[in-house]
Design a protein that fits this description.
Length: 187
């Protein structure tokens, strides 16, 4: 599945209305806290992988910023969350982040081997959009599209009822607007 977000916004009102604050907080912690993640078998967090790769002190985000400041046309400002020598029981879902300046905007292409869109996918997208916004700010560039390529997009059985409720709520919220514009509200 390829998800193409033309205007990534971590403060999107749809997310604010429908997202689980618990999962948003959990993912924010994963992207900002260097401690190991007990729910993932004590795997290293995304923060440690991005800002202290393999425990080496290498800040991959700083390296992306340096690369794009040095060469605005660089197509190699690419980083990974994989730590192949240590990742024997857990492989991070978001594996590759590829930043580039295109038409003056900072675009981000992300590869994930799997994303749980029923519970954590929205929280992953929020954190990736925040990361993209932070890098764009450092480069003094506007935020461009965020593209996420997902090999296995999942909604677990335990989340189906919640997903149906969110879709029904979104349909109800859009009914007056679609009636006024004469469009149908088919999802």
């Amino acid at each position: 599945m390829t998800l193409d977000v033309q205007y990534p916004n971590p403060d999107d009102p749809i997310i604010a209305q429908h997202a689980s604050p618990e999962w948003l907080g959990w993912m924010r912690s994963n992207f900002s806290d260097y401690r190991r993640v007990p729910e993932l078998g004590d795997a290293r967090s995304y923060a440690s992988r991005l800002f202290d790769y393999m425990g080496s002190g290498r800040n991959q985000i700083a390296a992306v910023i340096e690369t794009l400041k040095r060469d605005a046309h660089a197509s190699y400002a690419t980083i990974t969350t994989l730590e192949p020598l240590a990742d024997v029981t857990y492989i991070p879902c978001v594996s590759l982040l590829d930043f580039w300046l295109r038409s003056g905007s900072l675009e981000l292409v992300v590869y994930a081997h799997s994303i749980d869109f029923g519970k954590k996918g929205f929280a992953n997208l929020v954190q990736l959009a925040e990361l993209q916004r932070d890098v764009a700010r450092e480069l003094d560039a506007p935020v461009g599209p965020l593209v996420m390529i997902v090999k296995s997009a999942t909604i677990y059985q335990t989340e189906l009822t919640l997903m149906r409720e969110v879709i029904a709520s979104a349909e109800r919220a859009s009914e007056p607007a679609t009636r006024a514009s004469g469009q149908s509200a088919a999802f």
